[in-house]
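notes to self, project folder thing:

trying the whole complex as one job this time. last attempt i did each chain seperately and stitching them together was a nightmare. two parts in total, labels are on each line so i dont mix them up again. if this works i'll redo the older ones the same way
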Amino acid sequence: MTRRHMVAIGALAALAIAACGSSNDSSGSPAASAAANGPATGTPYQVGFTSDLSAQFAANGTGLRNGFQAYFDYLNNHGGISNHPVNVTVLDDAAKTDRALANVTQLVTSNSVSAIAGFLVSNGCGAAAPVAKTNKVPILCNAVSGDLLSPVQPYVYTSRGLQVDEARPMLDLAKKLVTGSSKNMAVITLASAASASLRDALKAAGPKDGWTIVADQSVPLTASDVSAQTSTVLKGKPDVVVGALHDPLAILFMRTLASQGATNIPFIDYDGATLTALGGLKNPSYYMASSITVDGNGSGAALQHYRDVIKADSFDPSGPFLNVGYVQGVIIGEALKACGFPCSGAQLQAKLDKLNVDTGGITSGPLTFSATDHEALHAVSFYTWDSATNAPKVAAANLKGGSN
Amino acid sequence: MNPQIAQAIVGTLVLGSLYALVGVGFVILYRATGVINFAQGSYMVLGGYIFWSLIEQHGFSLVASLLVTIVVLAAAGAATYLVLLRRMVGAAEFVLVIASLGLSVVISVIVVLIWGPNGHTLRENIPITPLVSLGNLHFSGLDFFSIGLALLIIVVLDLGMRYTRMGVRMRAVADTPLLASLLRINIHTMSAIAWGIAAVCAGAAGVLYAQRTSLDPVGLQALGLVAFPAILLGGIDSIRGAMIGGVLLAAVQNAAIIVFGGEWSDVIAYVVLLLVLLVRPRGLFGSREVVRL
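result (full assembly):
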């Protein structure tokens, strides 16, 4: 074997290892803290969870798991559901389709779960959908491709709205932010299927609102430089930039904008960036969509409860994706309460289709499902950085979702 | 000059500098020890996190954080060799490549265990607004710092490898370890120094990159891997080649983005890698003896 061969093999092996991530499976366990109502002692419900806990999106996947686990730890320590605890089995899918499929099969066949949550990225949700349907076990996904929700697949749900439905509220916020006669809009999105749908919706609906789309840029998930995209965006002299860039790319884009002298152009980002970007940038020109509270701050019993639950497991309420994990816990927990004990997957599915939970400000509007609509949330709020208080603030609350 | 092209040039110089810095680490290690080190990306991550920890958590100044990071990375690189790879001297290259892949995973896990999986963002320690404008070319303080630090490290290393006794000894060890040892050159010392230098290069690149975006244990490694096509383009045993290869690769990527769209930037990098392997395996400036058919 020549050195050239070795170099090539080494390069391929490096890529394979980088893509694979590492295994980090674990199982949930009830928290040890004492509870006001006492820990639940009855026969447990079984619930599964699968997400990326070790690969490219591990930071967000871990937050998702922690929020979900914290919800049920707190519930179990406070009497459970009519004294039945909820046992959560957590598996790592490393954002890989085959791992997600194997996890779901294991959870359904070996753990006899009533529902499976998590699914940080949409590929896992798509892979699990046929297994969920065959075994009549509902899956609750963070990210899901639109074709699984329209028409509705009976066992596939999402704990938030579709990314494409953020187009309307983004345009509504843009209208609020840009009051002059110039209506130039640039679009910059990740090169993913979901973000491409959002981009298409923005490009279709924007002109109807009077916007001229002056730039349309795409960024690979693994991009390490966006200077070319940024210069193309600036070439169009936009009054506002809308799009979908996750935390590292959002920061890179905003800082590249600044390095090219554009410090005041508003950038409206999707509900996929987190407080990591918002708090890292501390830039009042950066707006981030979120259908769930980003930090848990605010008055009201529900928000206080959220903070208590997350802190009870020693997590930070403002951590990335803990809020989404918590909301997934609320959805499964409330459906199990309505279902009673025991509760099969099919029985739980029937209850999920009638879910209507007022979260008291934790989410932008209530969590609702119906037989024809499996998106839990239908509105988003936008956050920006308040320089005066050095903290996030709501720039626009509860804007109705939609793609037109 | 067209503003779009002008800013792409600035981006090319900055990204090319980072590629070059990581690439020079590859080259130094390869020239001194014959190891193609795929753990460079992990040292980037380690450098970024150490720097973040010092400046954000412990209140160190920018300069102090950078210096301490460099010292720690140098020690970590040298220790890696002395503890783990010393016993592999003379092993087949393929074995060493696999060992470096394993090392990459180990370092990544250590970073996650120490700092957790969450991303972190460095505050703007160096101004990111335009500092100098040459027509439509706008350079921020961070751009200058990135390009300048990369150039400084690369030039010092290039001169050091060419004209200092230590550089000559390193090259002797890489060429024929047995003969070098007969000449009373301490192979292990030279190799440990090379590992330390490689880790410093990667760590410095990690710091500079983290200053532009955010830190996360997995994402930062991608830059380390994309630097590999850059050194193949320049020549795997040429420091100057790594520098020019880095800038050329960044230029090709940015041109592809402007012409074809953003989706093409990473694809183009690996297309370049394949083309170089097919057409000119020794790269633009690599030594002819690197290829042994």
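what i see at first glance: The CA atoms of residues 229 and 271 of chain B lie 9 Å apart.
need to look closer tmrw
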